Write the C-alpha cells for this entry.
Amino acid sequence: MKTKFLFFFFGVFFTGFAFGQGFAEVKNNREMYIWGEGSSITVDKARKNALDMLVNQISVQVESQYTQTINEEKTTNQSGSTFSEKVNSIVKTYSNATLNNVEQIILSEEPNAKVFLYLKRSEVSKIFASRKQKILDNISLAIGFEKNLQIADAVRLYYWSLLLLKSHPDCQSMMFTPPDETKEMNLMAWLPARINDVFADVTLTVADIKSENDQKTLLLNVTFNGQPVANLDFCFWDGRNYSQVQGTTAGQSSVELLGASAKVENVKIKMEYIFEYQARIDKELETIIEKLDPIAFSTSYKSVKISVPTTTQKPVAETNQVQNKSVEQFKDTIKTGTIPSLINPSRYQPRIDKVVEAIRTKSYASVQKMFTPETFESFNRLANLGKATVIGKPEIKAYSSDGNVMCRPVKMMFAFANNNRKFSEDVVFQFNSDTLISNITFGLNQAAINSITTNPKYAVKDQMTIINFLENYKTAFALKRIDYLESIFADNALIIVGKYVKVAPGIESPYKNNKIVIFTKKDKQTYIKDLKQAFDSQEFINIGFEDSRVEKSTRGGNVYGIEIKQNYYSSNYGDQGYLFLLVDLNADPLIHVRTWQPEKGLNGRTFTTGDF
C-alpha cells in the first residue's frame, strides 16, 4: 500500500517506522516502481536532481518506442549523441508538463536536502496522455484554419503537431480519422502528406511590377485552391540570403528585389511552417523544437516567374468605369449578409493614393492637411513603425456609418531588422464629415469579423461598433498609444490578469498542481503603469485576434461581453490566451471589465458577462 508523507506546518517532517517501510518498499520493488533520488542544499534543487534520475528511468522503459524517431534524427544530426541520450533528451520535454502521477517523499530538510520521487510503472502511459490530446486538438484547429484559408496558421499547427507526435512514444501507432473520412489514418504518414498537400495547393503569381533604378518591387497574388489566402508567411531569396519572414493580407504581398537580384527571371519563395518565434507562447513546444531537428519540406519552396500575366491586367477604361459606378451597384456582402452602407469610393480613393505616395516617399508633411491634428500624430507613428511599406496599389472600399466613412483596406508591411521579423496588416482610414482623416486602425482579419457578425439578434450597428472598437484596441498596442488605452478604461474598471506559476508540491499530489493559473486583480492606475513599462521596453508589439464570442448583458443597457482569442507578440516575448472585455457601447465605448487567461478552464470555461 502506498504511503504519503506530509510536512507539519512548522517544517517538521514525518519520521518513524511507517516512513522507512514505505520508502524501502518502493525502492526495493523495481518491477512495480520507477524512482529517482536527489540531493542538494535546497529542496527545489534536490527535487530537480531526483526528477532527472526519474526521467532517465522512464526513458529506459519507453526507449524502444522511439526507434524510428531517433533513426530519422541521426540522418540529419551528427552530434554523436547515443540512442539512449537522445531518448532521454526527448522524454525530458515532459518534465515541465503534466507529471500528475508522480509521488514525492522528503527524506531530509535543507541544508542537506534529499528528495525521493516515484511512480508505478503502470502509470507511465498517463504521462503521455496530455500530449496526445494536444496533438489531436492542434490538428482539429489546423483543419479549421485550412478551411478558412488561414494557411499560415494551418501549416504552423500541422507542423507543430508533427513535432509533438515525434516526441510521443506512441508516434508509430497513433491513429486519426480525418474529417469526411471513415478510415483511420496513421498520423506519422498523414501529417507530412497533409503539409505537402497544403503547400502544393498554394499558388503565387506576380500581379504587378514596379521598377525604379536598380530596385524592382513585385506585387504577389497568393491563392489556395484558387481563392485568396487569409494569411501565409514566407521569405524570398534576394541573391545572397533569405529575407525576413513576411506575411500576406487579403491574398497579396510584395517582394523588393535590389541590385543583381532585380534582374533575375524567377524569384525563389520559401513558405514558413516552423514558426520558431511564435513557439515562445508554448514553453513545452519551444523545448521540443530545441530538442528535435527540424523537418524539411521541399514543397515549401516555390519558384515564381517575374512577369505579369495578361489576364491580371485591367484596362484603364475598365478601372475608371468601376470607379464611376453608382452607389446602388456598390453593394458588398460578408458571410452574414449585406452591409447596406457601402458607398462609392471615388471621392476617397485619390486621398488614399496621396497618403500611400507620402508613405513610399517618406514625405509625411505633404499630407498633413489631410488629417486631424491628433490623427496625423498617429499617422507619423504608423509610418515610422519599423520599416513601413505599402503592398501594391490599394483599391479601397468605402463604408458610411454615423457621418464617418471608413476606407479599407490599405495593405501594409512592417519590418524590424533587430528581430528579423515582418508582419503585415490591413490598415483602415476613417474620414470625418469634413473629409479629413480622423482615425487610423489595423483591421481585424476576416475570421475575427465573421465571428462577431454571426449572431443576427444583435444590431448591425452594434456589431460594427464592436469591430471598430477592437481595431482601435489592437492598434493602440501597436502604436503604443497609452493615452487612448487610458481613456477607454472606466476609472473603477476591474482588471484581472491570469498567468502560469510554479508552486510548491501540494499535500495530495506533489506534482499535480506544479503549474497552475493564478489571477491577479489590478486597478486602472497600476494596469496603465505596467502597460507603459511594457511599451517602453519593446521595439514592437503586434496583437492578432482570432475567433470571438459576443454576448449582450442581460442587465440592461447597451453592454456587451466580448471574448476573443488573442495572440500577442513583441520583441522578446509571446503568449496566447483569451481576452474578455465587458464594454459599454452607450456612448464612447468604455471598458468596465478586462480579463485575460492563458487557457480555457474546465469544460472550455472562460469569463462571461454573468461573472460580473
The longest helix spans residues 43-62. The two ends are 47 Å apart (CA to CA). Residues 314-443 form a domain with the Nuclear Transport Factor 2; Chain: A, fold (CATH 3.10.450). The chain has 16 helices and 26 strands.
